[in-house]
């Protein structure tokens, strides 16, 4: 990974904006979701947990569009890596992007909108843990699928800046998983405790 730094200007403004955008997104949605879980403020403002969750989901989707735009602009502002600027790397990138898209799409279909966009923090709990594909082959397939999309996109553009930013995506998502996982498990543990006490 260190060799990438020789090909990337990390002081470039587009690269800095992309890095900040990548780091901001999971921080934002985790902070807002935790705040909602503790206060139910968004549910009160929007009149229901579902409306509040849909609103947060729309904001997250918009932020993800901004992040992807910033990522692409950062790649375009930096030179290509000659060794990756070839047919096989493009095809490999396209295949990785396709697998990532499969994981993201099937995760969304398995979880639904509220399951994907932190509905459990709004009190919208699923009946049981989803274990169908892609959850049957990978933990957190939405995050790893998204990371694969950025990796594929970077390879298709022969972009060392993109590869480095993909590492930032992976690190950001890993931190988010460490933060979200135990908290979500606790939400469902409380649900089970409530069911048993009835």
Describe what this molecule looks like in 3D.
The protein is an all-alpha fold. The chain is 73% helix and 0% strand. The chain has helices at residues 13-39, 41-46, 49-76, 87-116, 141-156, 160-197. Helix 1 (13-39) packs antiparallel against helix 3 (49-76) and helix 4 packs antiparallel against helix 5. The chain starts with 12 loop residues before the first helix and ends with a helix. 32% of the residues are buried. The model has no long low-confidence stretch (mean pLDDT 92).
Low-confidence stretches: none
Mean of residue pLDDT values:
92
Largest sheet: none
What is the H/E order?
HHHHHH
User: How large, in whole angstroms, is the Cα Rg?
Assistant: 19 Å
* Separation, N- and C-terminal Cα atoms: 54 Å
Global geometry: elongated
Count the DSSP helices: 6
Fraction in beta strands: under 5%
Tell me the quaternary state.
single chain
Structural class: mainly alpha
Give the key terms.
198 residues; 6 helices
Question: What would you say about this model in short?
Answer:
The protein is mainly α. The chain has helices spanning 13-39, 41-46, 49-76, 87-116, 141-156, 160-197.
Q: Which helices and strands appear, and what pairs or packs with what?
A:
Elements: H1 13-39, H2 41-46, H3 49-76, H4 87-116, H5 141-156, H6 160-197
Helix pairs in contact: 1-3, 1-6, 3-6, 4-5, 5-6
